[in-house]
Amino acid sequence: xxxxxxxxxxxxxxxxxxxxxxxxxxxxxxxxxxxxxxxxxxxxxxxxxxxxxxxxxxxxxxxxxxxxxxxxxxxxxxxxxxxxxxxxxxxxxxxxxxxxxxxxxxxxxxxxxxxxxxxxxxxxxxxxxxxxxxxxxxxxxxxxxxxxxxxxxxxxxxxxxxxxxxxxxxxxxxxxxxxxxxxxxxxxxxxxxxxxxxxxxxxxxxxxxxxxxxxxxxxxxxxxxxxxxxxxxxxxxxxxxxxxxxxxxxxxxxxxxxxxxxxxxxxxxxxxxxxxxxxxxxxxxxxxxxxxxxxxxxxxxxxxxxxxxxxxxxxxxxxxxxxxxxxxxxxxxxxxxxxxxxxxxxxxxxxx
Length: 352
Known about the structure:
Layout lengths: L1 H11 L4 E5 L6 H11 L5 E5 L11 H9 L14 H7 L3 H11 L10 H15 L2 E2 L1 E2 L2 E6 L7 E6 L9 E6 L2 E5 L19 E4 L4 E9 L5 E9 L16 E2 L2 E2 L4 E8 L26 E9 L11 E4 L3 E5 L8 E8 L3 H12 L1
Parallel strand pairs: 1-2, 3-16, 5-11, 9-12, 14-18
Antiparallel strand pairs: 4-15, 5-8, 6-7, 8-13, 9-10, 10-11, 14-15, 16-17, 17-18
Helix pairs in contact: 1-2, 5-6
């Protein structure tokens, strides 16, 4: 009955090209036969391969199961490969179109790397997303020789778009930096902040760590530093170099936010690859969502609206979530800065 109705439905709607996936190829002779025998508008059926992505399921039946079993928050969960899901995660229409244009249409079943899609998302957001500074896991830094008052520094909004201009970022004696940007005992090759080492604060000054404050568990909760006033803007008059630049926010001016760090929904490239007796849910990634509740952001983000996209410098691309409310911003990580696909592509080009 499906084959009987398929061609007639397309004909009634004056469909010139009825595009189907490869499993309908065997049905095409019957599709054509009915149209010919009935003498109706001659729609033509063409088949192409189904889109498959690593770490992703596109079966509506299986996605429905995830929703019904509350494995995700709904059809628009940012981990879901639905239009509402990827929109909420911060993917742009342009990135999706560029991805589709690059893969084209074929008649060979295969699976594409998710990293390829992410590459196009990064490529598009790199051009359009304003840069801001945000600290997800704050570590307090006190610059002992900095005055009690604060100042404003110039920061570039988007180096890829000179017309985006600059903004003012407040700087003060007490800052927050990422916990990972300080090591009391740095391993070999670690060039970020550590005792006696000098680093550059983005758009600001060179600082040197001098001492630390620890809690009762022996964890570093505060780092004391000195700064060089002559390095304002990030360069030294004597041309001395530092090996690392780290981002920061002013403690007195920072706003709090919740940041949701999304990862692949499945832990295996092929989610359907499961032992006998189990279903695809056995491959769900238990770490596909991490919620950071006490992130600190620069104050320029105070009036950010749902759907706005930004690059958090050194961290990745983020989008304001629908759950945001006045005084309670929520951001979703769209994609990290690391571009795996670009490296794969470069390696492939080198072999040619």
